[in-house]
Design brief:
mainly alpha; 70% helix; membrane; protein transport; 4 helices; rod-shaped; 158 residues; Sec-independent protein translocase protein TatB; TatA/B/E
């Protein structure tokens, strides 16, 4: 970190020995060791808090992303549901209209003269007899020896 070589460390040791003295040197080195351990603990705590803040920030970002995706999916589902419901309502309305028109015939407005004349003129006549055939039947080839009655013979039988 500080790029201190052996020669520089030896010079620092000699200067410390001259200023502190040989009698106080062990106490001084112990104090420096304690100070170094306190600084390392504080650095570790700071790093842990910083890492935790970064994780929280990342988690918050992930939570926001997930919430955005959830909102997007739910809005898409909501739109699909509303379109299906509107199509279903429209189809139901059309089916009701068709059912009503099949149940009740179209009549003119009540109170009008057309309604009275429509009701009065609507009578059912007795069934009429179907007209007789105008064209004569086509002759069929019959094998010799079988007798086929003519039209006049058939009419006389009836």
């Amino acid at each position: 970190m500080f790029d201190i070589g052996w020669s520089e460390l030896l010079i620092l040791g000699i200067i410390t020995l001259l200023f502190v003295g040989p009698k106080e040197l062990p106490v001084f080195l112990r104090t420096i060791g304690r100070f170094t351990s306190v600084v390392r603990k504080q650095a570790a705590e700071f790093r842990a808090q910083f890492d935790e803040a970064m994780r929280d920030t990342e988690l918050d970002q992930i939570r926001k992303d997930v919430a955005g995706l959830r909102d997007e999916v739910s809005s898409t589902v909501r739109q699909a549901k509303s379109s299906v419901e509107s199509e279903l309502a429209e189809a139901t309305r059309e089916a009701d209209i068709v059912a009503k028109s099949a149940q009740t015939p179209a009549l003119p407005k009540a109170g009008s003269t057309e309604a009275a004349s429509a009701v009065q003129t609507e009578t059912v006549d007795a069934p009429q007899k179907a007209p007789e055939a105008v064209a004569e039947p086509v002759p069929v080839a019959v094998p010799a020896g079988t007798a086929v009655p003519t039209q006049q013979e058939e009419k006389s039988r009836l």
